[in-house]
Design a protein that fits this description.
Order of helices and strands: EHHHHHEHEHEHEEH
Oligomer: single chain
Shape: elongated
Number of strands: 6
Number of helices: 9
Low-confidence stretches: 1-6
Strand content: 5-15%
CATH architecture of the largest domain: 3-Layer(aba) Sandwich
Number of domains: 2
Largest sheet: 6 strands, parallel
Strand order of the largest sheet: 3-2-1-4-5-6
Mean pLDDT: 94
CATH class of the largest domain: Alpha Beta
Distance between the termini: 15 Å
CATH topology of the largest domain: Rossmann fold
CATH superfamily of the largest domain: HAD superfamily/HAD-like
Bound molecules: magnesium ion
Helix content: 40-55%
Radius of gyration: 19 Å
Structural class: alpha/beta
Length: 243
């Protein structure tokens, strides 16, 4: 948080670039929907194979796996499901088409469950009214086109001047500085004129700092990782104090 005073950024910043999941949309709700759907589809398969799994345990394990894979930057859900069975010491082999089905089910359930936070639309309108350029930078879901689809269905889609899916529309994903620099370039501003707002210290804050941007960490939960952001907020509303 440092020594910067309130409104310290307002005269230096021209663009505000946001992360999507858990920053603008409530991924916890998305996860609840997605995990329940995977649990349903996978549970049915396993019972058919003679493995009577406890649904509650399966849900718990899916949720743990989700956090772990995110920390390791393993975004391809196809890789998750065999690991899940391994963790649960279930010997069953997952057919390729079931793996694909689980991944699709996960994302479609996620997309329909993860709604914007109540403060998302008001703060975006506030920033736009104050003349800031708005950008959205989000890593690929590793299912080509899925992240783009999830962006396009958002009610705030049209408030953004640019949107960028890193790892699909750029070479690298976060925390490489490359997608952050690409977003600034698309907006026509220098990186030091941007503030990046994101929830993951090890992806959003790390990458934006490397690109030379100012950073705001939206604290949604403790990731157990320490990367210092210029500002830490608990709600997007608090951006009004800074910008
Ligand atoms: Mg995020």
């Amino acid at each position: 948080m440092g020594t910067q005073t309130a409104r310290g950024l307002a005269d230096k910043v021209r663009a505000v670039i946001f992360d999507l999941d858990e920053t603008l949309i409530d991924s916890l709700q998305g996860h609840v929907g997605a995990h329940a759907e995977v649990c349903r589809v996978l549970g049915e398969f396993l019972r058919g194979e003679g493995y009577p799994v406890d649904e509650k345990e399966l849900l718990t394990q899916i949720s743990k796996l989700d956090d772990e894979m995110n920390k390791q930057f393993i975004y391809d859900r196809d890789e998750w499901w065999p690991r899940l069975l391994e963790r649960m010491m279930i010997q069953a082999r997952l057919p390729e088409d079931l793996v694909k089905k689980l991944t699709r089910s996960y994302w479609l359930a996620y997309a329909s469950s993860a709604k914007p936070y109540p403060e998302t639309l008001p703060i975006l309108k506030y920033l736009k009214d104050r003349g800031y350029l708005l950008g959205l930078l989000s890593d690929t879901d590793r299912l080509p086109g899925m992240k783009r689809y999830r962006i396009e269905i958002q009610p705030f889609r049209d408030l953004f001047h640019i949107t960028l899916v890193s790892g699909e529309e750029t070479e690298q994903t976060k925390p490489s500085p490359e997608p952050f620099l690409a977003a600034a370039e698309k907006l026509g501003v220098r990186p030091e004129e941007c503030v990046f707002v994101g929830d993951k210290p090890f992806a959003d804050i790390e990458g934006a700092k490397k690109a030379g941007m100012r950073t705001v960490l939206v604290y949604r939960r403790d990731w157990g990782v320490k990367v210092e952001a210029d500002y830490v907020v608990r709600s997007l509303d608090e951006l009004r104090r800074i910008l």
